[in-house]
Amino acid sequence: MYAKFIKKILPLPSFFEIALSSDEEPHVFPITAAPQDIACPICEGATVCHARTRRRFRHGYAWHIGMLWIELLLPRQRCKDCGFTFDYGLGLVRSSTESFRREITKRCHGRSIADVAREYELPYTTVERWFYTYALDQLVEESALHICVDEFALRKGHNYATSVLNAETGRILAIVPHRDQDAIEAVLKKVTGKIQTVISDFAPAMAGAIEAVYPAAVHVLDRFHLVQFFTDAQQRRRRYLGEAKKHHKSRFIDRCLARKPEQLTAEERQFVQEWHQEDPHTKHIYQALNHMRYVLKATTRTQAKKRLYGFICCVRCWNVLKVRVLSLNVNIRLKNVAACPRFNVWFGLNVPSS
């Protein structure tokens, strides 16, 4: 009876036999594979088991227990004819099973990827890659008025793709490989409906593709990437905080400089003041970051326009090249900015050019 129950909560291929977990590790289930005739991938000859490696794979999640793992011995085969040796993964890749990856993908429906990654203690980029890997099975055909377009990594640093989501429902509408302007234009042309708003990052290829496919649509600059400009600038400027790095870890410095002042403790705020005295450029970037957050809190078009114009006028006086270049870019690109209906801030700005 226990074996039948385990097979229901841990779906696996029929050639796997599941055993009960031990009292010391109740979340780990030993698995044994039935004997198989494995052919050589080179000459298709008979092979023998050369060695075995014990591996664990994520396979499920249970409340009060946490992550459920399966443990088994993966064989390393050797061909009798050509002598070629290879690892036979039994259909398992990396550190998780396909059943587990698909289940995590389902949990992302109606929730942000970041929330799911935090709940299951998985890297954000890993959950994002799984989500878009199985997204082709979840594509829907629906008309949209407001869409989001962004790139994602299939293999970070190597393979990328571009996706389009419905900003109101969160459903994936189209996916194409690559992330150049031609790929972005191709994925935008697959979307049906009278598109009014397109949300993207600051990439020039995004702006060119949106202008080519939807010239009448309003181009929205995503607030996440906007704030990321400042946090990335702070991390690059951190190397000049020599005295601070003697007493604190780099991750702690980045966290204190990236968070809002009201989210810091009194001791952390004191540290931030000391770092600002050590490097005035770090202080200006920090002030620009929080000023932009103040702009994004605007609740009306007039208020947002006034705050953004004040931000641009303020940072022009600072002798920080990164912030001044960013303000110039924002000044040029925000002439036709409006916010997505999912947010409370509406930007329909016509900022005077410098």
Automatic annotation (TrEMBL):
Q: Name one Pfam family in it.
A: DDE_Tnp_ISL3
Q: Which domain of life is it from?
A: Bacteria
Residue ranges of domain Transposase IS204/IS1001/IS1096/IS1165 DDE in the record: 147-312
Q: Which PANTHER family match?
A: TRANSPOSASE FOR INSERTION SEQUENCE ELEMENT IS1557
User: What is the protein's name according to its record?
Assistant: Transposase IS204/IS1001/IS1096/IS1165 DDE domain-containing protein
What's the source species for this entry? Caryophanon latum
